Amino acid sequence: GVADAHNLAWKLAAVHKGEAGAGLLDTYAQEREPVAAATVDQAMRRLADPALHWGHGLEADAARAAAGVWSAPVVHLGQRYDSAAVVDPRPELPSTVDLAVALDGSPGARVPHAWVDGVSTLDLVASRWTLLMGATGDRWRAAAADVGLPVHRVSAPWLSDDGALLVRPDAIVAMRVTASVPDPARFLADTLDQVLARPVAVPST
Question: What is d(CA 32, CA 82) in angstroms, rounded to the nearest whole number?
Fold first, then answer.
């Protein structure tokens, strides 16, 4: 599907341009295979009891929750990745039928929507690495400039005032920081090296 293509495309491009190590490509299967399995599982649960698919209202929502059936938006947009291309992932999906609850800024999840000067965060992060910083996270701006990333200030419940979210080109949160760090520039550079599977330089002797 489209998500498979998007997941693979930016990784292939990064490796081809020399921006990432070949190990990044291994994360395609790590991320997409569990999503495919979960999607099939959800479809089979609905097939076994069509009322879970077609039902409406609070009673139907309760029945779906009891049967472990997610809402369609959560199935398509709420699933989370657990791979080496995510720092400290949170793969366990909250028990919810509400996509807004599922998208809480956790590493491995799709970046949530928030307005930034009339533009959605979903548009700001489209097809490029982006750093989203909290209301008082000015030190992250200089750190982002050091590694050539666009940065945007966001006021949202899923981003602490001095924290930051590093968002991948496929709009997945690669890293979340909830408090200030001593050296944001070094922290961000090290995070990109880790997520992009860049080879570790061996000091010459």
Answer: 10
Q: Which H or E run contains 166?
A: strand 164-167
Q: Closest Cα partner for 131 from 159, 90, 103?
A: 159
Instruction: Transcribe 44-112 into DSSP letters.
Output: HHHHH-HHHHH--HHHHHHHHHHTTPPPHHIIIII----STTSSS---SPPS-S-HHHH-SS-TTSBPP
Please report, for the chain, the start and end positions of each structural domain, with discontinuous segments joined by +.
2-195
**119-120 and 115-116 as β-strands: parallel, antiparallel, unpaired?**
antiparallel
Dist CA 156 CA 196 (whole Å): 27
- Convert 2-40 into a string of H (helix), E (strand) and C (coil): HHHHHHHHHHHHHHHCCCCCHHHHHHHHHHHHHHHHHHH
The 3-state DSSP class for residue 129 equals coil
**Domain 2-195, CATH number (from 1.10.3720.10, 3.40.30.120, 3.30.360.10, 3.40.50.2300):** 3.40.30.120
User: Measured between alpha carbons, how far is 22 from 16 in angstroms, rounded to an integer?
Assistant: 9
DSSP 8-state secondary structure symbol assigned to residue 136? T
CA 91 distance to own-chain centroid:
10
Q: Distances from the Cα of 106 to the Cαs of 39, 41, 47, 165, in angstroms?
A: 20, 23, 30, 9
Averaged pLDDT, groups of 10, the chain, 205 residues long: 92 97 97 92 90 86 84 84 93 68 90 95 94 94 95 96 96 94 95 93 53
Look up residue 122 and give its two tokens.
């979903």
